[in-house]
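cron nightly-structures :: item 1 of 1
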Amino acid sequence: MFPSFVDSTLSTGAIIGIAVGVSVLLIILVVVIIVLAIKRPKGRYNSAALVDVSKKDFTKIIYGEQLDEGTPPKSAGDLEALENLLVQGNLETVFALNKITAITEADKIAKALVIIFEAHHKTMDLLKAFTTDEVKATDSAANLFRSNSMVSKMFKFYSRLVGLPYLYKTIAPEIYEIVEKEELHLEVDPEKLEEGSDLDEMRWTLMAESQKILKQVLNSVSQIPAPFAELMSHVKSTVAPKFADNVNTTIGGFIFLRFFCPAISSPEAYGVVEEPPQPNARRLLILITKVLQNLSNDVEFGSKEPYMTKMNDFIITNRPKISDFYVNMEKAKSNPFTAPTLPKHIKAVSLAVISDHFRANFDKIENKDLKAQLDPIIKKE
């Protein structure tokens, strides 16, 4: 009896000891995991690359402060009559609006017009009309679609309106990867280079990072929004007869300079990350932007930025690839596309912006018949 009791006691004690030991080990493991999590560099940037694009709400990114504005008061004028006047077939009212709009007001007016026309599914008509008008009115290819032109500003906003899912699926993952590398320091300007840094290595790294982003664009034909392809086709057919040598650079001016490049240099403004990149990451993003802008402009680096001339190899190598990309964009006209749904009050807010602008610049309108039509519409009650 006694030996059996001893064996039983030892067995029970061993089991209790093992259980206590396992519990202690589990507690230690949990503590270690917590400590490591605290010490691990925090992923400060919420990545668009890791978000299901189909469930992403782009509203705030697109409209910004306009979402906080309420329904315009009656004193804004007869907005329904103004809307009908704006969207009528010949767009006479819109072109008159353009003539009285200063550069400082152009962004606001361009955004309002796109919203109003998008509500009628006529944005493409608007963009094509302004594209055709600008080509006809421009004598030099160097002055075509400059940053202050109304159609350039309208496209920049429209590209956000319909192109953010495309942006998130293509270059957002590459941008996020750069932004998350907080220890990254890349500089190709010898005057800014830290002592001991390898300039050639820096240049090759810049070229490699630029190529990674460009590759995502070049391989994205099946994802290009159909309206992008339709407009670029119109740009090509309009520009080619007058400026045959500038078709590709003109298309690049829309797609890269007003869509991809702004998102690369300021990813926080496009919702790719929630916080501004750290200085080192920002510098690399800006350098990549310079490289892609010169490629889209088909301009090699020279005396203005001699430290970037090594990137001319990148431009020369990719010149035929980007040309092929512009040709292949034609295929994207048949890509599936769903028009964006506008927030409920955003059209009324935009109409009020146009009404106020007409009222403030009423004396500048040259067309007397149009002034007679507008006068009762924009009058305050």
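cron nightly-structures :: done
Residues 111 and 264 are 21 Å apart (CA to CA).
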